[in-house]
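Standup notes
- DV: blocked on the single-chain target, sequence here:
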Amino acid sequence: MACSLLPLHAPLSSRPAPRTLPVFPRGTRVLRHRPPPPLLPPPRALPDIAAGAASGIRDALADAFLASPPTWRSAAASNFAVFVAGSPVLLSGLSASGFAAAYLLGTLTWRAFGPPGFLLVVAYFVVGTAVTKLKIKQKEAQGVAEKRGGRRGPGSVIGSSAAGCACALLSIYHVGGTAFSELWRLGFVASFCTKLSDTVSSEIGKAFGRTTIGIW
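- DV (later): unblocked, structure below
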């Protein structure tokens, strides 16, 4: 009776029938399933990274320019940024070695007296270069022009700033204490103003003067 409950054509084993691969005619192109490409980061991730990098650069520049009192690192970074931005103007009035000497002067000046002292040196360079280039062809014809087409070398840079550099070093290392700090600042300003007045008068005299009278 138990056997009568089974279907007439029931399989004798419960194992599934073996799978057979489909047979395609020769030359048939079979398309295989490829996994989907990896997901890209959200579109807002890259702007966030760029904004973070920009913020970091801005903070670093702010620390460099606004450090008070200035440090050697902040002075070098600030001076480097100014030299990169103003390199076309600087190279028009300085030789390559003069450019390097001026960078050291600018770093020393920023470290000692901050942006105000640095701006004084910038004004000295701009005005001095302008009057040196004044009627440069005429000066060259007369043999009284600066060498290299008016571009000053390291000797000129160091000679013009020696007294100012001495005052800057005395101020950095607090020689004489607080009582002498304003004296070093005054000496720094006076040295560059005196040198600039000498440069302007001599270069304008070369350009427009006809007779030079020496007073001994």
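- Follow-up: The mean pLDDT is 79.
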